[in-house]
Amino acid sequence: MSRAWLEQVQFNPQGLVPAIAQDAGSGRVLMLAWMDRDALAETMERGEAVYFSRSRGRRWRKGERSGQVQRVVEIRLDCDGDTVLLLVEQAGGAACHTGRESCLFRRLENDDWEIIDPVLKDPETLYGR
Amino acid sequence: MSRAWLEQVQFNPQGLVPAIAQDAGSGRVLMLAWMDRDALAETMERGEAVYFSRSRGRRWRKGERSGQVQRVVEIRLDCDGDTVLLLVEQAGGAACHTGRESCLFRRLENDDWEIIDPVLKDPETLYGR
What we know:
Radius of gyration of chain A: 15 Å
Largest interface: A-B, 38 and 38 residues
Number of strands of chain A: 8
CATH superfamily of the domain at 4-93 in chain A: Phosphoribosyl-AMP cyclohydrolase
Oligomer: homodimer
Shape of chain A: globular
Largest sheet of chain A: 4 strands, mixed
CATH architecture of the domain at 4-93 in chain A: Roll
Helix content of chain A: 10-25%
Distance between the termini of chain A: 41 Å
């Protein structure tokens, strides 16, 4: 399989590129994570989001523990080639490890961050703690 | 003015945080750029997006040359505090320096990046070259 498309992606000095996941249906921005070259290639091949965890130093199939898989509908690239956008269908309706739809659940109001989203899934259920 | 909200933002070792700009009306993801602490504070105070250009090493008011200002409707923060989302009204309807609505105008199709958006504004008009 040709990998010419991968050559057009500009990875940073750590070999990573930021990837935004957006819900293909609602348009909600769900999260931002990072991908190395292999994670991006695997995302395309599997049709499910695979990221690179900087804290754990390894690739990570979104949903591998929680089941909250992201099925990839489209992969987009920006003008500079250094940002990826995934349009996804979010299994279970919750992208965030807190059990919320989106990781971006805090809104700045009156100089404070207000939580604007409900918890849809009990994190203990998602992660079996 | 209290800056306690700024203390909850996790800037990377370079003092930067990624900021996603999303059109508040259409929901289209327009771009990803970076902010330092002062850019984020100034974005809140001005109500218009201010970023930090890593290539130029300075803050940059979006639209300062092109007029393509982003009026900020909401500022959101993610669960880890290390990603910012701006909901914006994009002046002129084109966020990208290429004159397109969104910087994320390439879609992966058959192992190649296909341009899916038209040029709405002549870049020469935007930047006066």
